[in-house]
Amino acid sequence: MKQNKADLIVIGGGPGGYVAAIRAAQLGMSVLCVDKRKTLGGTCLNVGCIPSKALLYSSHQYDKAEHHFADLGIKIGKLSLDLDQMMTQKDKVVEQLTKGIDFLFNKNKVTRLEGTARLRSPSEVSIKTEKGEEIWHAGQILIATGSESASLPGIKIDEKKVVSSTGALSLKKVPESLIVVGGGYIGLEMGSVWRRLGSKVTVVEFMDRIVPQMDIEVGTALQKSLTKQGISFKLSSKVSAIKEKKEKLSVEIESSSGDGDALEADIVLIATGRKPYTHGLGLEDIGVALNERGYIVVGERYETSITGVYAIGDVIPGPMLAHKAEEEGIAAVEAMAGEYGHVNYGVIPAVIYTNPEVASVGKTEEELRDAEHAYKVGKFPFLANSRAKAIGEAEGFVKILADAHTDQVLGVHIIGPDAGTLIAEAALAMEFSASSEDIARTCHAHPTLNEAVKEAAFAVDGRAIHI
Q1: Nearest Cα to 90, choosing from 42, 131, 53, 144?
Q2: Which of 257, 297, 311, 355 has the highest count of CB atoms within 10 angstroms of its CB?
Q3: Contacts 24+ apart (CB under 8 A), 184-190
């Protein structure tokens, strides 16, 4: 049996794993990256972040053509949807980006294997490929296997009628009706895609509000906007069963008060969250500790309970975000190399790519209130922003939370156009412990959406200019 050696073996080729592999190679390590997919990029690039954003963009353009182009003086003939071409464009984007990672691996001399890895010891990995089994010896091992969709008890996902986000990205036709189980990021984004293309969409959420981890005021504004767009919501409710009913599905729903209801749908999307992907890795064989929810336990330098074995991304506690995994990947391998690797978990932005977009970084009002932390609030509406008005995207607002005594920015929440890009300014400010005054006194180009951030900073002390 062939034996090989590497300074670092990375198990998983998603955002955390492939970025860690490249950074380790830059630091002079010999690196092997193992992934079971034929293409690199993990869930995010293959069946997650990237294809969903491609469909969100395409469906948004379709919606604009149908409802808003005429307002701009753009007249078109009868509008029609070519769903096959929309899916082809999505797949083309994915293919280009996955090939880009292959290029980066070659450029940085990272060895890549397609196969399934299992830890035999803290320094030995068995890899099953199409050609057979290979044994690799490693100086260090990094687990970056990501997560998988979680389902509900008694409900089977067949990726045909009852689908996960993976199936929802590749439907062959626009469903007449779609029920989304879960009012989080994934459910709202995919629900938005198919609503724009013509589906009747209902979101069923167990909690009493959507995106419960977000600032309540922002979440409420998002629900109001999506309702205006035609999405229906059943809150404080759960799906108890899904049954076949001729060509349809009958979805039994139970509210928190005990009332029952049944809705028919062509497709049901289960978007109730994700769980760490750790099975089959042999973690139990070598004693890697997991917590009560199945996440790998790590220390500050991302080392597990076993010396020489590290873990990052969705398999460890924390938000399941691609950019969080990337930061952890870089920090982990820099720590292995004796350098200073660090992730500031208080400044990790989160984005929902609906329309309007929602972005958040830092503390919410509810968190500050519960902690009895004295704070000030500054808000500015996009309705008063000249660029937002000019492009016809004036819905939403910027909200800045600052310490009542020091004026340090504690949290920023944005609902509105390009919020996912605007939040970077706030994250950078918070990384440098900026005050709202620092943001307010920084010159912003005119006319830009970013001016709304500046005005919200002024508003912290009641000094906004344009309202």
Answers
A1: 53
A2: 311
A3: 184/210, 184/211, 184/271, 184/273, 185/211, 185/350, 185/352, 186/52, 186/271, 187/269, 187/271, 188/222, 188/226, 188/352, 188/354, 189/52, 189/56, 189/352, 189/353, 189/354, 190/52, 190/165, 190/269, 190/271
The residue range of the domain holding 200 is: 162-272
Both 141 and 10 in a single domain?
Answer: yes
Same-domain check for residues 195 and 142 = no
Q: Tell whether 264 and 313 lie within a shared domain.
A: no
Active site residues: 446
pTM score of the predicted model:
0.96
246 vs 289, more confident? 289
Say whether both 303 and 444 belong to one domain.
no
Tokens of 429: 């400010």
- Do residues 370 and 334 share a domain? no
447 within domain boundaries = yes
Q: Assess whether the previous peptide bond of 276 is cis (omega < 30° from 0).
A: no
Of the listed ranges 120-124, 246-250, 308-312, the least confidently predicted one is: 246-250
Is the domain of 225 the same as that of 289?
no
Residues 245 and 141 in one domain: no
